[in-house]
Amino acid sequence: MTRHDRFSRPGGGPAQATTSPSGPRPGGHRPARPALSLVPGTRGDAPVELSTLTRQPMPADVRGAIVTPVRGALMATWMPLDGPSRIPQGRVLLAWTPAGGDRTDVTAHLGLAGAQVLLAVWPGLRGDWSGVVRPTVAEVTELHAALRLATVVLDRLTD
């Protein structure tokens, strides 16, 4: 688990996107599909940038927002309370609550094959906090996608 206070951030800045669905990568590589796709909203909401949601409280009928890094931004889709209780594998669910004044407490949970785990807690964030959580979310989702790919390759090599 990673814990951050309002004065620190890991990595010193946002992570760069590793896939380029709209065109070739530098160096002549083929265009890559995003490793993770967005979970469709059941409330009829289309995925939006997380930064558009961070200054307001979460709606009462949601558990949080499923986030996915897309071309350097965090795209979010609400996960309703009456929806599935499990976080999809490889996805990060962010939830936030007011912490008094203009501060917000943010938690992140990661969906794994057998469980969901507490990934990080950021207490007392102010304003648009999406930039603070971006490095952790991007790195964890990319690592999860890489580990899934390595597992598939290893399984095929050993069969």
Which keywords apply here?
alpha+beta, elongated
Could you please describe the fold and organization of this structure?
The chain has 159 residues and is an alpha+beta fold. Helices cover 18% and strands 30% of the residues. The chain has 1 helix and 7 strands. It has one helix at 130-158; strands at residues 2-3, 48-49, 62-70, 73-80, 92-98, 103-111, 116-126. A 7-stranded mixed β-sheet has the order 1-7-6-5-3-4-2. A hairpin with a 4-residue loop joins strand 5 and strand 6. The chain is elongated, with a radius of gyration of 16 Å.
Sheet with the most strands? 7 strands, mixed
Count of DSSP H/I helices: 1
Structural class: alpha+beta
Find the count of extended strands (DSSP E, 2+ residues): 7
- The residue-averaged pLDDT reads 77
Helix content: 10-25%
The best one-word shape is: elongated
What's the helix-strand series?
Answer: EEEEEEEH
Unreliable residue runs: 5-44
Strand order of the largest sheet: 1-7-6-5-3-4-2
Backbone CA Rg: 16 Å
Could you give the distance between the termini?
34 Å
Indicate the proportion of strand residues.
Answer: 25-35%
Structure summary:
With 159 residues, the chain is an alpha+beta fold.
Blueprint of the fold:
Elements: E1 2-3, E2 48-49, E3 62-70, E4 73-80, E5 92-98, E6 103-111, E7 116-126, H1 130-158
Parallel strand pairs: 1-7
Antiparallel strand pairs: 2-4, 3-4, 3-5, 5-6, 6-7
